[in-house]
Specification:
- This protein is α+β, with helices and mostly antiparallel strands and 73 residues long.
- The chain has one domain.
- It contains two helices and two strands.
- It has a two-stranded antiparallel ribbon with strand order 1-2.
- The termini are far apart.
- The mean pLDDT is 87.
Length: 73
């Protein structure tokens, strides 16, 4: 049997859920339809990337090094 207290708790829960959904509508929109951009690599002359690893400890963390070739005149 449903009493008045259960109905009031249900109404309060529905209002709280609606308020939560209304407050986070922008976040939900970004999750459902994320904005996407096409990223292109940089077109820099004389620049290359070398992948190496740090030997400072036993973890061997990966390192990406940017090498810029400088041409003196």
């Amino acid at each position: 049997m449903v009493n008045r207290r259960t109905v009031i708790k249900g109404i309060i829960g529905a209002v709280a859920l609606g308020t939560f959904a209304l407050g986070y509508s922008e976040v939900f929109e970004k999750i459902v339809r994320p904005s996407t951009r096409l990223y292109c690599p940089d077109k820099l002359d004389g620049v290359r990337y070398v992948y190496s690893s740090c030997l400072g400890c036993n973890i061997r963390c990966g390192i990406r090094v940017r090498i810029v070739l400088h041409q003196s005149s």
